[in-house]
Amino acid sequence: MxxxxxxxxxxxxxxxxxxxAPASARAAAAPEPVTFAQGLDRPWGLAFLPDGRLxxxxxxxxxxxxxADGRRVSxxxxxxxxxxxxxxxxxxxxxxxPDFGTTPWVYLSYAERDGLAxxxxxxxxxxxxxxxxGTTVIFRQQPKVVGSGHFGARLVFARDKTLFVxxxxxxxxxxxxxxASHLGKVVRLNxxxxxxxxxxxxxxxxxxxWSLGHRNPQGAALHPxxxxxxxxxxxxxxxxxxxxxxxxxxxxxxxxxxxxxxGSLGTACRIGGGVHAPDFVEPLATWVPTSIAPSxxxxxxxxxxxxxxxxxxxxxxxGRALWRLTLDGERVTAREALYGTLxxxxxxxxxxxxxxxxxxxxxxxGRILRIAR
Length: 373
Description:
Neuraminidase, mainly beta, 4-stranded antiparallel β-sheet
């Protein structure tokens, strides 16, 4: 769910009116974001280069470099694969190789077309000057399907330098439970696209599959202490989820959800009634009754905001806010929505090398916002 229906936004704002967290969990007022760069066309993903510049994907298919002072946006870099910019598809996430200093690979996820069908793909190329060289596709979602939604597409490197890729169900539902399909899965790859030998061995499954039963995971991050992959994914009507994607685990979609399929309200489906356990992994947290359409996920480990140490930040599209979740281990103890008055769709959130929080706003005149003190 990426929409911004006014009635649903009104319900969300009404739900946010009471205090969302106890006073003990709240700190001083969060500083207002400052515009670092602007004029971007539907920016989707962000990566920090070692020299202070930023790599930014634009959904139209352009990968650009933003100068370290935010004043200059480059022309689109050469070497980017052709993308299918349609619906929720386009040029999506970007990640740097863990050994970027010696092997300057840049990894891109994107929607790739094949006739009338499309699917999530991952390519990598070496950043040389202002171009990608030797660009090669290392992964293609199978099967490609007709439609323009639910590509997932976040890229996260694990501590062992393997690559996690989140894959949406392409709005097809049932294939999320099919181990022979990539739809509705998280896959784990080596950096060249080969399959790690220690991936889970699931009966009848493609060997790159790490976890299954996902709907549309658009935010993902490694836990700073455990190194496990946490992700947020869109529910249908209600039921957005926070999950830990562990090897071989099944998260239940579409057989279990705290939300209801579109058009099913007033029938047997009840928002908040889709208990996952014991057959499937229960989410750590959900957003009910109103979806926020989460996109982007970051653990805060910096020193600029001591009061935010250990917090988990989630961008929201339909919710038009940045959510801060307070954690006690794997338990969410409090949550609050920040910056809702800006009226922005927050597509991505990252902690920068400077300890600031960086946000991407999702529109045709997108901005990079920096939260610092």
